[in-house]
Amino acid sequence: MLASAVAKVKRHVLPLFVVMFIVNYIDRVNIGFVRTHMETDLGIGAAAYGLGAGLFFVGYALFEVPSNMLLQRFGARAWLTRIMFTWGLVAMGMAFVQGETSFYVMRFLLGVTEAGFYPGVLYYFTQWLPASERGKAMAIFLSGSAIASIISGPITGALLSVTGLGLHGWQWMFLIEGGASVALCGFVYYWLQSHIHEAKWLTPAEQTTLSGVIAEEQRAREAEHVVKPSIFKLLADTQILVFCFIFFSVALTIYGATFWLPSMIKKMGNVSDFEVGLFNSIPWIISIAAMYGFAALAARFKHQQAWVATTLLIAAAGMFMSTYGGPVFAFVAICFAAVGFKAASALFWPIPQAYLDARIAAAVLALINSVGNLGGFVAPTVFGFLEEKTGSIQGGLYGLAATSVLAAIVVFFARTRPRGHKPDDKPLQPAAAH
């Protein structure tokens, strides 16, 4: 009975969450494809573009916790629909920015409105799936990011050719991609339910069995009376600081490439916006294949730190090589770097998962994720400043390479077992992370 209920939940909600994640990712990173257009039409230079790209992550970080609290109050169905509706409206509003100030405001608001989406989905899984099934569900959900990184380029590139009604192609791109999020909201509200007993597609027996198992797991957690430490106590643990630095270094490189790669591709020659989108997909296709390959190797030949260090050094080498030769050589080097930083982002998480007490793992992993994602603010901001002042992002690429090398060294100082762990102890239950 439990197995059939779990299977129905996965079939009902996972495809929708994957689609939501895809449109979420596209609305977040599509400005990378319109940078030159906005510079030509609005005078938004490299420094302003970099700051605006990064401000998204400031808004996201500031409002993530309040959004999660409101989700629990209003229910996942209403709140996830609200999140998607408002981020879609703001994404559409990007079509009407007039200059640097409005660009900053809209990017910050996009982060504010998107805040809570990922942890909201995670919370939804805790209310609908037993603990043993959540990791599998999260793996499927996170595949939306991989799919989006591949298809966002061609879709956005094609939309940039749309014209009419006195609007530029980049304005139509924002309107159409943001409008897709708004249009999907009606289906999201219709399709999702906040509570198991509201799901008419489950039989009464399945509802009772599933809700009973999840309630029993919750009672077991509450019986442990675990007090979650404050953020200050967590940051006093040097191991957690090490984890934060490593993931920050990975995120720094990922977002540096994400927001600047389309501009680098344009320098390769007389390429159209659609061709830029196609080229932009290549590093992500290669990196996703490499990510699964390295995961298989790490599972077979144990030593997680060594594998993370290897992939970080690959990322560093690619970023360093991208500063030499012409634009085509730089693009090939970025493809090589992507193999490293995408694999590192996946191989890193088992290290803190193994170190942490499973009872506080979720809170600490969220902290590591939040601190790490500040790389999404730092990388584009620094890149924009450097290009504005020096006419080149070469210094930024050197910085990413150096940071990756340092992280490759630091990772060997990261514990893979908690203090007091004995060889015969059972491994801790891993928690999903973004």
TrEMBL record:
Molecular function as annotated in GO: transmembrane transporter activity
Subcellular location field: Membrane
Xref: Gene3D superfamilies: MFS general substrate transporter like domains
Keyword flag Transmembrane helix: yes
Keywords: Aromatic hydrocarbons catabolism, Membrane, Transmembrane, Transmembrane helix, Transport
Topology in membrane: Multi-pass membrane protein
Protein name listed in UniProt: MFS transporter
